[in-house]
């Protein structure tokens, strides 16, 4: 089986300024080859650009990044780097 990289694994030589921002991490992930954006839809991850849906059993989380708001702790986000055999 062939693994398809889907958004989110960081470039090995990260620029320190980019590590702190969501957009910087996303740019580094694209440079490494993660190319698709997935959104959580019910019980699956959906990729609108390829009409692809993946269930939790079809993905592997490679890495994740947590971002918290500076003034409001409730303003937080988590970015997952995932791979799939699909």
Question: How would you portray this structure in words?
Answer:
This protein is α+β, with helices and mostly antiparallel strands and 86 residues long. It has one domain. It has 2 helices and 6 strands; from the N terminus they run βααβββββ. The strands form 2 sheets. The chain has a 3-stranded antiparallel β-sheet with strand order 1-6-5, with no helix packed on it. Strands 2-3-4 form a 3-stranded antiparallel β-sheet, with no helix packed on it. A hairpin with a 2-residue loop joins strand 2 and strand 3. The longest helix is centred in the first third of the chain and has 11 residues. The termini are close together.
Helical content class: 10-25%
**E-strand count:** 6
Biggest β-sheet strands, sense, barrel = 3 strands, antiparallel
Strand order, sheet with most strands: 1-6-5
The total number of structural domains is 1
**Unreliable stretches:** 7-18
* Dominant shape: globular
Total helices: the number is 2
How far apart, in Å, are the first and last alpha carbons? 8 Å
Q: Provide mean pLDDT, rounded.
A: 77
Q: Indicate the structural class.
A: alpha+beta
Order of helices and strands: EHHEEEEE
Give the radius of gyration.
14 Å
Strand content: 35-45%
